[in-house]
Amino acid sequence: MTTQTIRVVIAEDQAMLRDAIGALLALETDIDVISHAPNGTDALAQVRATKPDVLLTDIEMPGMSGIDVAVALRAERSPTRVMIVTTFSRAGYLKRALDAGVKGYLLKDAPITHLADAIRKVASGGRAIARELAESVWEAASDPLTDRDREMLRLAEAGRSNQEIADALALSPGTVRNYFSEAVQKLGARNRIEAGRIARQNGWL
User: Which residues carry this modification: 4-aspartylphosphate (predicted)?
Assistant: First the structure.
């Protein structure tokens, strides 16, 4: 009986790691890495163009995060299954990923054989979640942030001023201040910098 080949797109902004994962997966006879993407925006475009069985993606990448890509693909009812491989072991990230429809979540220190087996499981319709994280998701605090809150806190984290953020998002500076005030209040922080730190520590950013 012929085994069906699993077509995979890899999205990872670190070129060396991206190439290494691709080379190791190429040794698997039933996995075909059809393309690589250096950022989330390119990953989404490649999935739309090639319709792979699995998108293997990091979380934090330029353009769009892996979770953002998963949300977009779910909204489009894409048949591609999303699997995240990341260094982020916080339950908040896992919970956000699962809410976005992600089917697999492994840590980057997992053996390559575990990754290949997880890809097979996800491609066949199952889920593959790092064992050390699977139970922690039930204890994760609820994410109080909106997508707009996240966008603004990321810009603040990058050192943007209120005026620069207002220009980037086509908002008035007063509206930006109001958004930050709400985000700070939601997180029980003293200012937007502390709000960003709290959100990052909980996996909400």
Answer: 58
